Amino acid sequence: MNRFGLPDLGTGIGLRTVHFGEILAGKPALDWFEVLSENFMDTGGRPLFVLDQVVERFPVALHGVSLSVGSTDPLDRGYLQKLKALAKRTRARWVSDHLCWTGVLGRNTHDLLPLPYDKATLRHVARRVRQVQDALERPLVLENPSSYLEYERSTMTEWEFLSELCDATGCGLLLDVNNVYVSSYNHGYDPRQYVDGIPADRVVQVHLAGHTNEGTHILDTHSGRAIPQVWKLYERLVARTGPVSTLYEWDADIPPLATVVREAAKARRYRTSARATGTHGA
Amino acid sequence: MAPELALGGLQRWLQAVIEAPGSVKAALRSREAARLVRPERTRDVVRPSHRGLRAADRLGIYQGMYLPRMMEALESDYEALAHFLGPNAWTRLVRSYLTAHPSRSYTLNELGRRLPEFVRRARVPHAPFCHDLARLERAVAEVFDAPETSALAEKDLTSLRPRDLERLRLVPAAALRLLKLDHDAGAWLDSLRGDEHDHPPVRRRRTRVVVYRRRYGVKRREQGEAAFALLEDLVAGAPIGRALARALARRGAARLAGPEAAFRLFREWAAMGLFQGPASTPGLTRRRPRS
């Protein structure tokens, strides 16, 4: 159990437009849905109508891509207000975004861009996380991004940075195990060291996904099935955290709902095993 | 300068590299990027990878994903325009549009807001037609996302006294757009639906189009000149009596045939849900409207 007392929602998937009809028409074997915040902030049409139906049947958590918590631009207060309103409407169990920045000078590249990991950046991000948490009146849950470059000025590992950020702000973690694997491949570190290095009691949620290996680097494409190495990392993580809310992301060439549900269901085996052995907390 | 760059400068530099068109080499030499980090100092900012990628290669991964991501977002709103222009002209248009109007919103839904106006002055084949097509597609996107409002029913009007009805100002549904087009852009949009993509030729034809939403589905309907002019007056907030009087007094094609025609139109528009009902229009619940 995480230190926030946030519930283990079980196994879920991301709510995607192509599955709206199947979700409303059937009873997918899922425990919960993750909702991309920005897709529902400014719509009053069918997406919001569907979301309202989903919320009546499943717990949801909000997941954003445009908070830009690491940017040197001012925080977007209007965005935060809308995010808070959506969280209230959906009775979101928690609100997450990424440890990244998406743009400066008032612009948005709509990419999750990496930060340098040093003390100055840590102070900057910590200040903004506190501001976000004050605005949302709840802990922010931050996800480790995939990254394709590292800065020379970095003096800390990503997991050290995240650990210190948690201590400084009281924020939670969404650990994307696929992202850990992708970044470790791209930057040459041992992903097991990452999984062992993060504070387990801060982990509120886990992401799993497929990726695309280009040889010289891996792209986090959220396509296809997670590879065995990613499942092994997940097993290692839940041995530390215990059963934790787990979500499967599939965003490229999205297959029918049943296929995504089947992939997500694989997580149940590891969750059950962690519960049975009770090895977590180590 | 390079390694001592503060976080803000580092972010401005990376963004300049990502947004710059062309190769990553050209991006590193672009004015804004080179002002912040001299191209030969790139490796002082970004580490090479242990798998043999140079600093520039790693930056190129981010830079290379920028245009496709923006194109995908714009194509979701402007599928017909992209199809009409073809890949080369569409890519050129998007590149120049992004330079003029980079995303400034947390949502990509806003990215294409200014494309219709941009395309009107852009160097594209059949620019006036493209302008109409883009306006129509933008209207469809806006109507899709507009807030849901309760719809006016015919009985909401028939229950009013004639004098009150004349003074009543109708409130348009949030999911409603009126378009005056010089081309039959709707026919082109429709031609995308079939597998054969048998597109009609581009030709000028004045069309008056209502884009609206029923049961969360976006719909379009052409209106005659007279009906459209009356609808425009009502949407602009004219009281029903005054709008009707103007419609009957107009000349030519814009003149309404008579009160019976108006009654039929009101019934039709109520069925289409073009105006808000009593739940969102307090004036409609009163027997005596505000003066």
Radius of gyration of chain B: 26 Å
Q: How many DSSP E strands of chain A?
A: 10
Q: Count the strands of chain B?
A: 3
Q: Give me the Rg of chain A, rounded.
A: 18 Å
Q: Provide the low-confidence segments of chain B as ranges.
A: 286-291
| Biggest β-sheet description of chain A | 8 strands, parallel, barrel
Mean pLDDT of chain B: 92
User: In this structure, how is the largest beta sheet of chain B organized?
Assistant: 3 strands, antiparallel
**Class from secondary-structure proportions of chain B:** mainly alpha
The overall average pLDDT of chain A, rounded, is 95
Order of neighbouring strands in the sheet with most strands of chain A: 1-2-3-4-5-6-7-10
Q: Please write the string of helix (H) and strand (E) elements of chain B.
A: HHHHHHHHHHEHEEHHH
Helix content of chain A: 40-55%
- How many DSSP H or I helices of chain B? 14
Question: What does it look like?
Answer:
The complex is a heterodimer of chains A (282) and B (291). By secondary structure, chain A is α/β, with parallel strands linked by helices. Chain A has an eight-stranded parallel β-barrel, surrounded by six helices. In chain A, α5 (119-136) packs across α6, α8 (191-197) runs parallel beside α9 (228-241) and α9 crosses α10. Chain A has helices spanning 20-25, 38-41, 46-57, 77-90, 119-136, 158-169, 177-187, 191-197, 228-241, 257-277, and strands at 11-14, 32-36, 60-63, 95-98, 140-143, 172-176, 203-209, 212-213, 218-219, 245-249. Chain A is 42% helix and 15% strand. Chain A starts with 10 loop residues before the first strand and ends in a 5-residue tail after the last helix. Chain A is globular. In chain A, a hairpin with a 4-residue loop joins β8 and β9 (218-219). The mean pLDDT of chain A is 95. Chain B has 291 residues and is mostly helical. Helix content of chain B is 52%, strand content 9%. Chain B is built from 14 helices and three strands. In chain B, strands 1-2-3 form a three-stranded antiparallel sheet. Chain B starts with 6 loop residues before the first helix and ends in a 19-residue tail after the last helix. Residues 286-291 of chain B have low confidence and may be disordered. The interface between A and B is large, with 45 and 50 residues.
